[in-house]
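Researcher: Let's walk through a ligand-bound prediction step by step. First, I give you the protein sequence. Second, the SMILES string for fe (ii) ion. Third, you return the three-dimensional complex as C-alpha cells. Ready?
Model: Ready.
Researcher: Here are steps one and two:
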Amino acid sequence: MSSKHNLPPLEYADIHTHILPGIDDGSENLDMSLSMLKMLQNQGVRNVALTPHFRTQEENMKDFLEKRKESYDLLKSKNDTNINLALGAEVFITKYILKYDDLLPICIGNTNYMLTEFPYSAPFDEKTFDTLEKFVYDYKVTPILAHIERYPALMNDVGILEELYDMGCKMQINLSAMETFMTSRFLLKLIKKNLVHFVGTDCHRLEYRTPIYDRGMAAIIKKIGIDYAEKITNNSLLLFK
Ligand SMILES: [Fe+2]
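Model: Step three, the predicted complex:
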C-alpha cells in the first residue's frame, strides 16, 4: 500500500466531493473520477463521501437518485483504490425540499447526516432556522452545513454558529480555506471551540477545484495539534459505517 504522504497516520476522511462521474459540475467521466480518488489516496485519505449536487429547485429526488445510482455503480465497480466510499449528496436547500416525506435517501451512507448548501447570501435568519429545525425535529435528520466559511452571515457572527450547533447542526469547512491566512486563522478558532466537525476538499475536477486534502489538514495539525485532526477524523468515520 502506498504511504508516501506526509500526514501522521489517521483514517482521514473527505466528506465533501464531486467525484461521481457525469452527474453534476464535478468529474466529467470515470477516468477523471478514478484519478481524483487516486490523488486523495496518495495524500493519505482512506474514506471519501460522494456528494453530488442535488438541485432541489430543478430536479426531483427520484430522478436524482436514479442518476446517482448509475454513476455510483460504475465508479464502485472500477474503484481500484483502498478508499472506502459512502454515497451522499450536497443538498441545495429551497422550499422544494420540504415536499418530501423522507430525506434519509439523500443522507450520507447509512446515517441521518445530510450535507446541506444554502445560497451564499443566506442570512441565517429566523426562516433559515425554521427550515433547519424542521430537518432536525420533523425529519430526524442532522444537517451538516457545507463550507461554512463561504457565508458572510456565519463568518461575521460566531453566535449564529453556536445557535446552529445547539440546535443539532454540524459544520464542515473546505480544506482549501486553510490556505487563506485570515480565513484560516478564524477557522482554527472555530475548530478549537468545537464549531467545526468535518472537513472536505469539495473537489470538482482534476484541473479545477482539485482534490487537495493534505495541505489543509497539515496546516490544522501544525497550528493547533493532531488531537483536533483526530477528533474531526473520528467524527467523520461515523459516516462510513
Ligand atoms: Fe460542493
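Researcher: And what stands out?
Model: The chain has eight helices and nine strands. The helical segments are 30-42, 61-78, 126-138, 152-155, 158-167, 181-192, 214-224, 226-237.
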